[in-house]
Amino acid sequence: MWQSILFVRIQRRQVCLLMLALAILGTRLAWGQETLVVDQSDNRGWVFSAKPDISLPGEAPIRGIGDHAGGNASLNFSTTLGNDSSRAATLAQSNFPASMSDIETFNDLTSMSWRVHHSSTGGYPKIAIWANWEDSGGAKREAIYFRPESLAINADQWDRVVIDLNTSEFKNNGATTGGDKVTRTFATWLQTIGDFRIESIQISYNSPANTAYESYVDYIEINGTTFDFEGAIPLEPDAATAVTLPLWPLGLAAGLMAWFGRGRLSQLRHS
Q1: Which residues contact 47 (CB under 8 A, 6 or more apart)?
Q2: Which of 105, 136, 111 is nearest to 223 (CA)?
Q3: pTM, whole model, 2 decimals?
Q4: Average of per-residue pLDDT values in the chain
């Protein structure tokens, strides 16, 4: 009799453990496929930068057209004629959401994709991953950029760009390759920078002078976490222009405060 009772208890315990394991697994799967809305009430750590400044006549605002899923907005990467243009949306590693807390190095990346609506089949906004590290010469920074030339899209409609971690090509800035910009597959890059700490992940875009494109980005996905942009995100602080008044008309104390403040802002901007 006691053996039967013991057997039933063991079975019940095993069932409970199995249910607990399934619940934990389900939570992890759901957590890993999270969609986060990004808007004015919560920018989720994302910041925007643009050259020329968006306040100049003719420059596109940060908020873009509605997305493929019926959302009200996207990020605007459109450029104008006249000057070299660049735009970027950046998420620093320190601002990664809880669902991305396990991403520290390049080796931790398992998937990346984004939606793009671009007026040509190539040269569209691309994902870039920044790293920083210390060596005998001090702090170093490197970035690898996806090469849009390796994957054409349909022009003037929402299309999804998916990174193949084995075959997709990325070009670097040259910091780890003796100053030469080198193109390699993402898998090959992992052999040299896989253990480097990720500083930030961004979508970046550069347009040459006298060339204008209409371009929008949304649904940026990293390791299963998708960012749905439903409003404008704040501009990255421009510390370089935070102090513009000359120092000589100020009193000595005020001048010193402004001088040290300018130096501190410059360090924050370029660190």
Answers
A1: 89, 90, 233, 234, 235, 236, 237
A2: 111
A3: 0.77
A4: 82
